[in-house]
Amino acid sequence: MTWTTLPRSNSATGLAWHQRGSGPAVILIHGVGLRAESWGGILPGLATQHTVYALDLPGHGDSPMIDKADPTVSDYTDQIASSLQELPGPVCVAGHSLGALISLDLAARYPEMVQAVAALNSIYRRSPASAQAVRVRATSLAQAQSGQDADPQPTLTRWFGNPPAPANQAANDACRDWLIHGSLTGYAAAYHAFAFSDGPEDTALEQIACPALLLTASGDPNSTPAMSEALARIIPNGRAHIISGAAHMAPMTHATMIAKILAEFFTMAGGDA
Fold first, then answer.
1. Which fold has domain 9-268?
2. Any residues with CB less than 8 A from the CB of 7 and at least 6 apart, and which?
3. Of 18, 50, 248, 254, which residue is the catalytic one?
4. Does the reported pTM lie above 0.70?
């Protein structure tokens, strides 16, 4: 598919989002370095029964930065929760990667706002080697703000391989464009929050009362099936779903399949039209 630019509107707090469809609200929260357009393949499948809000994370797309040095996952959650207050709730929420951490945090700390939550390609308790690697990358991005180059290719290789499969070339190229032309400051701040999080605390996960879908890909080496399965065991109403043959960017490379899974999950959770 072609990853075309989507029109935006702004919440009362300034957060930018793309709105489509009609019905109960679904909020889509992308990962580090991306933007609302990364949900472009999923939007059509959800918008037939829902009003979908695909937002730009603070410091990404058209959303302003969080006015705080080194914001945490909870800071992003609080900013988004403030914007959601203007919507009739509760809402269904799906997040990818960093967006998955924010979605789970939102469900744990703002339970009155969330009817169902889907965490796509979420990390949980990284290995020491993985934790070290992601924190080194966070430091590299911080240094890039001081004039060093921020080369997107290592990120694209982790996401799509090098070279990417022909079917994933358009998604690879779209992500390259977003990484090159997006705010490096916003990217670095979000990556710092992602790198220095090890997933929600177990006590917080145990407080998530709504239905929770923990979805990841069989070929994701950093947000592994074992992580999603562990999350599903801790969350009282959680279940895991593993997409075979996909990797970290499954919401883009396997969008039609994931849209169907999300639509069915949100309908079963009561977020149907």
1. Rossmann fold (3.40.50)
2. 18
3. 248
4. yes
